[in-house]
Specification:
Layout (H helix, E strand, L loop, with lengths): L2 H6 L2 H52 L4 H5 L6 E6 L5 E4 L14 E7 L6 E8 L9 E7 L1 H49 L17 H50 L6 H29 L7 E4 H14 L5 E7 L3 E4 L1 H18 L3 E9 L2 E8 L21 H6 L6 H11 L3 E6 L5 E8 L4
Parallel strand pairs: 7-9
Antiparallel strand pairs: 1-2, 1-5, 3-4, 4-5, 6-8, 9-10, 10-12, 11-12
Length: 450
């Protein structure tokens, strides 16, 4: 980027140039208007003065003063002509230069050049009264020298003052904008030093309560969110790596033992162990992919879903698989929501699997529609969830009984998937205490009408 392009791209330069040009245009136009107005006022003053002089001469003629005496004023800035009815000059204060009439009718001439005289004149002609005979028209001229000099001096003064004012304003704007943007430049330099390895660093917040300190606060809050997101991402990668490593280690260990001691582990047992651990890997990878897709916030395809049908299908599937506890669906009634039938099926499946895994003897499922919500309840009579862990249980890889759930195939992702799906369809999920003393999971979903 060239020096010129960098300068024109600077906010400081652009603001200074725009402000200076605006003031220059406004003051230049204002100066022209002032000069014109003052010039007009001075010209009108000349006309009024010449008219008064003509009236005074008319009064003298009416009192019997001769035309020659009345035309003599003794002033260099005044011309006088007295004209009869035939248009001839009867008398004049400068006969050599005023042989020809300056006007032959009453009226005003703004600028008249008189041969032999340096100055120009504003001429006023008025008809003489009847008592002023033989004079019919009185012509008086006033020199425009003083008016022209005043107008020229004012134009010169404004021509000097306007650039000085614009220059002073430009300097003030340049300094003011520079001082106002200095904290922004400091924040830019600090932000340039923040990298993924130095994300905990934060921007210095300038003093005050205007837009710049608020911008610093907002940027720091954004960095906090990014830091939290990266921390969760690192934790997720660490946990996922740990979870994926466990079944792989079992497969590797079993294979090594089978190779070293073929008499201890037969082909059937090796195949069973590999299939079991491979199933765990497949389920874990599928859960991770589902979470990644949900957290990408895709536009989910929604349709009317009969949630009671999904509940009954999932309960029947568990019963057919030989669930070790009783499944009570006597409290399930009709309830229709809107969402993805596949994903909502995953919600019900995960909640039931979690309840069966922790229940002692019975899992009870309830479903009913109230107002604008469909409420799904899944209760078990197990140990329950301690209050201090009721929020954390929906995080990834959180397990209350690490050893037991690992042996029974729990990955710690089922409830995280439940929360992600429920939030994606506009619902909520919480955990509390069931009447039987175990855990109660409550899912609220919008009705189909919503």
């Amino acid at each position: 980027m060239t020096l010129l392009s960098r300068a024109t791209s600077s906010v400081r330069v652009r603001v200074t140039v725009v402000a200076s040009l605006f003031v220059l245009v406004v003051t230049a136009v204002g100066s022209v208007v002032v000069v014109l107005v003052i010039g007009h006022s001075l010209s009108q003053g000349l006309i009024d003065s010449a008219g008064q002089d003509a009236a005074a001469i008319d009064a003298q003629l009416g009192r019997g003063v001769t035309p020659a005496a009345a035309a003599t004023t003794g002033r260099n800035d005044v011309l006088v002509q007295l004209i009869d009815n035939s248009g001839a000059v009867v008398a004049s204060d400068q006969p050599a230069q005023l042989e020809e009439p300056l006007r032959t009718t009453a009226g005003v001439t703004g600028t008249v050049v008189v041969p032999g005289l340096v100055d120009t004149y504003t001429v006023v002609a008025r008809r003489a009264s009847a008592s002023s005979q033989p004079v019919a028209l009185i012509v008086v001229g006033r020199s425009t020298e003083q008016r022209d000099n005043t107008r020229a001096e004012m134009a010169r003064a404004l021509g000097i003052a306007v650039p000085l004012v614009v220059l002073a304003l430009g300097v003030i704007v340049w300094i003011s904008v520079g001082r106002a943007l200095r904290p922004v430049e400091v924040m830019r330099e600090q932000a340039d030093q923040i990298t993924a390895t130095h994300l905990p660093d934060r921007l210095a917040v300038p003093a005050g309560s205007d837009e710049i300190p608020r911008l610093a606060h907002t940027l720091n809050e954004m960095l906090d969110r990014i830091d939290d997101g990266q921390r969760l991402q690192r934790q997720f990668v660490s946990d996922a790596s740990h979870e994926l490593r466990s079944p792989l280690a079992v497969i590797r260990q079993t294979a090594e033992v089978a190779r070293a001691h073929p008499d201890r582990i037969g082909v059937d047992q090796l195949a069973d162990d590999v299939l079991h651990e491979g199933g765990r890997l497949e389920a874990l990878v599928g859960a991770l992919l589902l979470l990644a897709r949900l957290e990408g916030h895709p536009a989910l395809h929604t349709e009317p879903v009969d949630l009671d049908d999904i509940v009954l299908v999932e309960v029947a599937r568990l019963r057919d698989a030989g669930a070790r506890v009783a499944l009570d669906v006597s409290a399930v009634s009709a309830g229709q929501t809107r969402g993805s039938a596949v994903l909502l099926g995953q919600v019900v499946s995960n909640l039931l699997a979690n309840a069966v895994r922790h229940a002692s003897t019975t899992v009870r499922v309830g479903l009913h529609q109230t107002g604008q919500h469909v409420e799904l309840l899944v209760d078990d009579d197990g140990a329950g969830v301690p209050p201090e862990k009721q929020d954390a249980i929906f995080e990834r890889f959180v397990r209350l009984d690490e050893a037991r759930t690992r042996d029974e195939g729990g990955s710690g992702l089922g409830l995280a998937i439940v929360r992600s799906i429920v939030l994606a369809v506009g619902g909520s999920v919480t955990v509390g205490t069931a009447p039987q003393g175990g855990a109660r999971f409550t899912v609220l979903l919008p009705t189909e009408a919503d």
